[in-house]
Amino acid sequence: MRKATTGSLHIYIMDINQLTKVLYKEYASTEGGVSVNFREIFPFLNKGDRYSHSIHPYPAKLIPHIPYFFLNNENFIRKGEVVLDPFCGSGTTLLEANLQGINSYGVDSNPLARLISNCKTEVLSEKIAYRKLHQIISYAPTVIKAKNPQFTNIDIWFSPRVKDELAKLLVSIKQINKGKYQNFFLICFSALLHKVSYTDPRISVPVRINVNRYAQRSRGRAHAEELIERIDKIDVLSTFENICNTNIKRIASLNDIENLGETKIISKDARKLTNSLRSHSKLNNDSVDLVLTSPPYASAQKYIRSSSLSLYWLSMLEGKSLVEMDADNIGHENYRKDSIKKQLVGIKSADEVIEKIFEKNQLRGKIVSQYLLDMEMALDESVRVLKHGRCLILVIGNNKVCGYEFNTKRYLSEYLISRGMVLELELIDDIKSYGLMTKRNKTASIITREWILVFRKR
Q1: In 10 A of CB 418, how many CB atoms?
Q2: In whole angstroms, how far apart are CA 436 and each of 90, 195, 300, 368?
Q3: How do 9-13 and 2-6 pair as beta strands?
Q4: How crowded is residue 3: how many other Cβ atoms within 10 Å of its Cβ?
Q5: Across 235-244, 331-340, 358-367, which has the greatest mean pLDDT?
Q6: What is the number of other CB atoms lying within 10 angstroms of the CB of residue 47?
Q7: How do residues 92-148 score in pLDDT, each as one tens digit?
Q8: Which of the 8 DSSP states describes residue 431?
Q9: Across all residues in the chain, what is the average pLDDT?
């Protein structure tokens, strides 16, 4: 037995199923959510490098503790069943499901996210991976002609030497047959880009390191100068090799898991769940056993911009501009002026706030109203494919827009309840990393807590 803390509630638990019963009982006796510190309950997950979770950085990643709790829990899902994450990002939920012998479906509009999710859940032979790595490292210096990707301001991010070495390395990676090994090394290449570019490592979106933002002889300026000097001298090939060596060990650790579940990326759009990426046929009604996801926030994170360097280098824009690809994302912010008009969403509490936001800033009003309309479509799809009697779990936070609280948790709850879903549990987990969301304007706020909402389909 071990001690766990859930807010003011101190309990001794034997297993997760027992803890779940305690949380339901506590929730039934309170008017608000039950505070839960998942990091204290599962301290062994705090080390941050569990299996293949860390093969590639990604903004606003869901902590593994939350999916671990629900996916090891017979109250919600059992081995061999299927969990859907319609906003899978870099695949935290998908991997945790597979580790428990549960199959998973992933959906994401960002092609880099889809590639990461595929790679981190794909088992590789350690011996073959090392052999192919040796081939890549040996061949890259011999490449004579290699084209750099053509995108605006590439010279801001990469020195001429680094650009040339990256281009040769990419040619060498693509000599490997297409498939899971090439995809793995492309992900390692993507992870390399921020290490060899002049991007500020503290910020998720590409921002060039700027020594002039710091005072002379300040610690910040000295650190920025050291970073630039290190990047100017960096050995691209050896840095790539180190990344690959670490990631091969991470992926190879999946070979130790018995009855590992399988992941399938089925769609680019949570608003239209298909059988596969190349299919137009919808995923069957009542076909998944659990939906567990952390949706994007309204006006809070630029996922495509965060991935822009990788999208350019790996030619993943699918014939679109960066702005056009961003427009495929729920919660995007790029709208033509002639498309900006007030629109209500049919959720009374939300419409009242949208009216106020629109009066202060029409663009922000458009962004948040369209976000909710898109989320309604996505939630409809998740409910459609969820089996009757099974659960949909949302991990969501609130933020401020134009100084007004945008209570996403309340709006999405009201919508799901109107669609016949029953809210049966609310948990609250404080976010310890204040870097989860980016505070980008004076009227925005940093999200400091997450709500975990459990709905059941009647």
Answers
A1: 11
A2: 14, 20, 10, 19
A3: antiparallel
A4: 10
A5: 235-244
A6: 7
A7: 999 999 999 999 999 999 999 999 999 999 999 999 999 999 999 999 999 999 999
A8: -
A9: 91
Q: How far apart are CA 303 and CA 249, in angstroms?
A: 28
Residues making up the chain, counted from first to last: 458
Residue that the structure tokens 């990344």 belong to: 243
Cα–Cα–Cα angle for 334, 340, 343, nearest 5°?
A: 115
Task: Give dist(CA 69, CA 17) in Å, integer.
Answer: 9
d(C-alpha 107, C-alpha 276), whole Å: 10
* Burial environment of residue 228 by CB neighbours within 10 A (0 to 12, 13 to 18, 19 or more): middle
Place of tokens 């793995």: 184
Look up residue 59 and give its two tokens. Answer: 């903004």
Q: What is the pLDDT of residues 247-279, one digit of tens each?
A: 999 999 999 999 999 999 999 999 999 999 999
Q: Given this model, what pLDDT does residue 318 score?
A: 87
Structure tokens belonging to residue 425: 């549990």
Instruction: List helix spans (H) across 261-346.
Output: 303-306, 308-313, 322-326
Task: Using alpha carbons, list the distances in angstroms from residue 181 to 47, 127, 128, 178, 261.
Answer: 27, 12, 9, 7, 19
